[in-house]
Inverse folding.
């Protein structure tokens, strides 16, 4: 999905991976990888104005909500989620955590 989405953008953008999965017994999201550049470069934070979360399937919404929380903690002011399939309950949960 990354290549397809990037082909729609007018210019190349930095790509950072925030890997998450849903734990089978508790159904809680688990972060297994995060390469967001939290450090400051030249005394200035390099937090983007926009982050696009790519989640192939939004089922319960827990994983996309965890990704949104991580990006919000990083300081991203605008977040867009892109998904191929989504349940109504998952979309509702995500919209409640990030109504903008």
């Amino acid at each position: 999905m990354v290549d397809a989405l990037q082909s729609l953008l007018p210019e190349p953008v930095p790509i950072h991976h925030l890997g998450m999965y849903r734990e089978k017994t508790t159904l809680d999201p688990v972060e297994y990888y995060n390469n967001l550049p939290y450090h400051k470069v030249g005394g200035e934070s390099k937090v983007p104005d926009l982050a696009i979360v790519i989640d192939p399937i939004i089922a319960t919404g827990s994983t996309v909500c965890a990704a949104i929380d991580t990006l919000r903690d990083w300081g991203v002011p605008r977040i867009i989620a892109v998904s191929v399939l989504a349940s109504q309950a998952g979309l509702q949960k995500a919209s409640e955590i990030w109504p903008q």
Notes: The mean pLDDT is 88. The longest strand covers residues 29-34. The helical segments are 2-8, 62-74, 88-97. Strands lie at 18-22, 29-34, 40-41, 44-45, 50-54, 57-58, 78-82, 85-86.
